[in-house]
Amino acid sequence: MMNINYEGIMVIVAFLWIGFVAAISFMEAWLKFQAPGITVPLWLGIGKIVFAALNKVEWFFASIIAVLLLLNLAALFRGRDLLYISGFIILLMQTFWLLPALGRRAAKVIKGEKLAPSHLHLYFVAMEMIKVANLFLFGFSLLKK
């Protein structure tokens, strides 16, 4: 029977997940605001597309780790798994609350509506930072083994 290195695969997936989030949330999202000639509605339209795609990729990575944790039941529910679980919970909150709320705001701005300031983007950035930190610690804890 083949011996599968579940931890090794989870390390790779965790760090790939971090890379995608860092590239999009911490780089692309900010850089597009510096592009000359791009309007706020265009920024928002691009952002909606990019973050919807990122969300799908994140669910792919989260699912791989979840399946590997379940396949390796002997090593399940260690303290390190709480780091992954917190990232999973953040992804749930982003998918079912925050991204839809941001999408609704973006649609209104694209239509030309003036909106009161909101803290939704700050919540998103904070969640991304926590998620990346926890995934880093999760992946690093697997490397230590």
Describe the structure.
The protein contains four helices and no strands. It has one domain. It is mainly α. It has helices at about 5-30, 40-70, 80-110, 120-145. The chain starts with 5 loop residues before the first helix and ends with a helix. The longest helix has about 30 residues, at about 40-70. Helix 1 (about 5-30) packs antiparallel against helix 4 (about 120-145), helix 2 (about 40-70) runs antiparallel to helix 3 and helix 3 (about 80-110) runs antiparallel to helix 4 (about 120-145).
Summarize this structure as a short list of keywords or feature phrases.
0% strand, single chain, mainly alpha, elongated, 145 residues
**Overall average pLDDT:** 92
Helices and strands: which structural class?
mainly alpha
What is the total tally of β strands?
0
Tell me the distance between the termini: 22 Å
Q: What percentage of residues falls in helices of 4 or more residues?
A: over 70%
The Cα radius of gyration reads: 18 Å
Q: Could you write a compact summary of the structure shown?
A:
It is built from four helices and no strands.
Write the layout of secondary structure elements.
Blueprint: H1 6-31, H2 40-71, H3 79-110, H4 120-144
Helix pairs in contact: 1-2, 1-4, 2-3, 3-4
